[in-house]
Design a protein that fits this description.
The structure is a single chain. It contains ten helices and no strands. It is elongated, with a radius of gyration of 22 Å. The chain folds into two domains: about 60 residues, Arc Repressor Mutant, subunit A; about 120 residues, no CATH class. The protein is an all-alpha fold and about 210 residues long.
């Protein structure tokens, strides 16, 4: 992650979270963070050291740490084994709701998450975020065909990333993400034999006798 060792009580990280929640990613400046946290810019540079493009990289490191801290405080994943009567569909949706419902309530944080994943700190933040939900998915899919499990992992991961990107680019609302993912999960888990069968009108006509 950022390597900053930040916590929810850290005034620098708390200031960055406050700006992200109310004004969004573009509003975060090191000077404004320093003003709100009542620290010097030098203190921020020491906490988030960089070698080149100091302001930009320090800003990205700070935002990454702020998002990581926010996620730890707001996203709670139940890693207990699923109940015997929980279906794969229900288990996967339980996982996705735990991840996306807090973001739906704070859409600016989700936008910031998407924006920072394009920075040098983004890959680690992305990996650590989805590693939170991975144990739930593994338990839900435990014992199923390995090829199917791999397909679910790939398709659902890509669907999550695509939905986040479409939200961040302004094509959908944050509250639209879960319904879209729910349809994806349904298609991955439901028996689609009936829906994929040819419609009566689509069948070729019988040859005349």
């Amino acid at each position: 992650m950022s390597g900053a060792g930040s916590s929810a009580t850290d005034p620098i990280v708390a200031a960055a979270i406050g700006i992200l929640e109310t004004d969004g990613y573009d509003a975060v400046t090191l000077r404004e963070v320093a003003r709100r946290a009542r620290v010097s810019l030098g203190t921020i540079y020491k906490r988030f050291p960089t070698q080149r493009e100091r302001d930009l990289r320090t800003r990205d490191a700070l935002i990454s740490a702020a998002i990581e801290t926010w996620i730890a405080a707001h996203i709670e994943i139940d890693v207990e084994p699923p109940s015997p009567d929980e279906s794969v569909y229900d288990g996967l949706m339980r996982m996705l709701r735990a991840l996306f419902e807090p973001w739906a309530r704070r859409p600016r944080m989700l936008e910031a998450y998407h924006r920072v994943t394009g920075s040098p700190h983004g890959a680690a933040l992305h990996a650590s975020t989805f590693s939170l939900v991975a144990p739930v998915g593994l338990r839900v899919l435990d014992g199923l065909d390995p090829t199917y499990v791999d397909d679910v992992h790939t398709i659902l991961g890509d669907a999550c990333d695509a939905a986040i990107a479409r939200f961040a680019e302004g094509h959908i609302e944050a509250t639209d993400i879960l319904p879209r993912l729910e349809r994806t999960v349904y298609r991955l888990t439901a028996d689609n034999a009936a829906t994929t069968a040819p419609r009566p009108e689509a069948r070729p006509p019988r040859a005349a006798v």
